[in-house]
Amino acid sequence: MNIIFWNVRGAGSSDFRRIFREVVLMNQPDLVFITETRLSGERANRIIPTLGFERYIKVDAMGFAGGIWLLWNPERILLEPTGQSFQEIHCLAKVNNHSFLLSCLYASPITTKRYKLWDSLAEFAGMHNLPWLLIDLGFSGPLFTWTNNHQNGTIIRTRIDRAHANQSWLNLFLDSKVYHLP
User: Where along the sequence do coiled-coil regions lie (predicted)?
Assistant: First the structure.
C-alpha cells in the first residue's frame, strides 16, 4: 500500500495539477491525502475529478485556511468514511482483506482549534480497537517538511508532517516506511 500525504499550500493553480500528475506517476499511490488546499465548493469540485482518482472525500477550506482532500481508487483500497471535521477525516479502510482505521489530519495553527482536534482524537480512540494508522513511524528523506519560504534571513523550517500508527497497525504492516519526498 502506498499513501501520499501532501501539504500543497493551495491547489488552485495549473502548476499544482501538473506537479500532482508527475508525483502520482512517479509514486503510484493507492491513496492521496492533500491538506491546505485553500479551496472550497464548486472550484474544488471542478479540480478534484481531473486528478485521476475515482473516489474522494472533501473538507472545504474556511476562507483561505485549511481544506482537506482524500483521493483513492476503490480497486486498490476500500474506504468507508466514519466522520470528518475541519481538521480531520476518519475512515474504515480495507486492503488485501486487512481492515484498519485511517485518520487524516490537518491540525489548525490556532491553538484552541488544535485542542479540539486532540479531544476529538481521544474520543475516537476510545470508540475503536482496530489497527489505526497513530505511533510516529519516523521517516527517511529531507529533515524538514515545511518552510515559510522567506529568503531574507527569517526563514523557518520544521517537520510538521508525520505518520502515526498504533501497535496493532504496526503488527499488521511490518514493512511500513515513511519517505519525505523533495
Answer: none
The answer to whether the beta carbons of residues 101 and 132 sit under 8 Å apart is yes
Segment 140-158, tens digit of pLDDT: 888 888 888 888 878 888 7
Using DSSP bridges, classify how beta strands 135-136 and 31-35 pair: parallel, antiparallel or unpaired. unpaired
Q: Is 108 helix (H, G, I), strand (E, B) or coil?
A: coil
Q: How far apart are CA 48 and CA 77, in angstroms?
A: 18
Which domains, and CATH codes, for the chain? 3-172 (3.60.10.10)
Cα dihedral 121, 30, 86, 12, rounded to 10, equals 160
User: What's the pLDDT tens digit per position in 48-80?
Assistant: 999 999 999 999 998 878 899 999 999 999 999
pTM score above 0.70: yes
